[in-house]
Amino acid sequence: ILLSDWIWQDRLWFPAGLGWANLKDRDGQVFAKGRDLWVIFPIAVCFLIIRQIFERTVAVQLASLLRVREKPRVRAAPNTTLESYFCNASKFPSQSSVEELTKQSACSVRQVQRWFRRRRNQERPSQIKKFREACWRFTFYVLAFIAGLGALIDKPWFYDMEEMWNGFPTLPLLPSQYWYYMIELGFYISLLFSVATDVKRKDFKEQIVHHVATILLISFSWLVNYIRAGTLIMLVHDASDYLLESAKMFNYAGWRKTCNYIFILFAAVFILTRLVILPFWIIHTTWVYPLTLYPPFFGFYFFNGLLFVLQCLHIFWAGLILRMAIKFLPGNVCIPKPNHYRVVSWTEIEPSPEPYTTLHHHHHLNLSKTTY
């Protein structure tokens, strides 16, 4: 038996008595097919091209309109010895290494430390670059959410989750579902393609896991016709992402209070959609309700296993988001000095652990990371 035949045998991916034969087009009804997914790669390439044009035109103009400014950076003086260590050994030399470098470079300890600070600062992404990335993602997420809501709002499974299993697996494919899937998958593939050039955040590994799990989840739900569940999951994710990206944009523009209030709204929507609606409505209906209809099978465990991976990431991020959102609530609003913001994560709106002013309290915000 061929390996592919063994992997795709009916009993692994469908309830007993059902299989791939049930998903053949007939009577004018069209069903999802694995070969349809090849289109996501040219779509991803189109997204990369559109993004480059968008960031160089629309995003730049919007940055100018919101008065996003770059602060002058003091460049490190040319020094072959320190540059070689910086590029080949470490960007953060230990105390013993600093002392050794002072002998090799004929500089004092303070001069070496200052040189490394300035050299690291040179490699930090510019405010304009970060604004452009956030602007691109904001535009996609808000359009995807509106399109997804428009495609689902008149469907019975949008209001009654159990309807997503009505007639499974012979659920005819709708044009709106096809394009929603292909565009979402194409976008996430484009994010993986561009990860090397995007601003690298401290939750880089968690983001990669999230993107890969999302792509696998969406692709698998397409292959085995869990499309109704898949569209609901995508809509839940899109519901809060555009708020986060807009908070970043206002932060880069220096609109601190607007950024804080949007972030509080984002935190509320994130908690509602990903810690309430997703686990207690959608995952409950994909994990508990099917067992009343069919005995469990491998595809059932695989699909829900990917959902649980995403849910664990959501819980991890929600805790960090809540800690930040509480600090931004009215009456406890921190107004950091403009030069005390640094990149820590996909929120990128956390102040650094240096001193800053507050309205009512004098303490520090220091989260290590947060993400989408």
Automatic annotation (TrEMBL):
Catalytic activity: sphinganine + octadecanoyl-CoA = N-(octadecanoyl)-sphinganine + CoA + H(+)
Membrane topology category: Multi-pass membrane protein
Gene Ontology MF annotations: DNA binding; sphingosine N-acyltransferase activity
Pfam short name (any one): TRAM_LAG1_CLN8
Transmembrane segments annotated in the record for this chain: 37-54, 138-158, 178-196, 259-282, 302-322
DNA-binding region: 67-127
Pathway: Lipid metabolism; sphingolipid metabolism; Sphingolipid metabolism
Cellular component per GO, a single term: endoplasmic reticulum membrane
Taxonomic superkingdom: Eukaryota
Gene3D superfamilies per UniProt: Homeodomain-like
Residue ranges of domain TLC in the record: 129-330
Keywords: DNA-binding, Endoplasmic reticulum, Homeobox, Lipid biosynthesis, Lipid metabolism, Membrane, Nucleus, Transferase, Transmembrane, Transmembrane helix
PROSITE patterns referenced in this protein's UniProt entry, alphabetically: HOMEOBOX_2, TLC
Domain (Homeobox): residue spans on this chain: 65-126
Primary location: endoplasmic reticulum
Record-linked SUPFAM superfamilies: Homeodomain-like
Location of this chain's protein in the cell: Endoplasmic reticulum membrane; Nucleus
GO biological process assignments: ceramide biosynthetic process
Protein name per its UniProtKB record: Ceramide synthase 2a
Organism ancestry: Eukaryota, Metazoa, Chordata, Craniata, Vertebrata
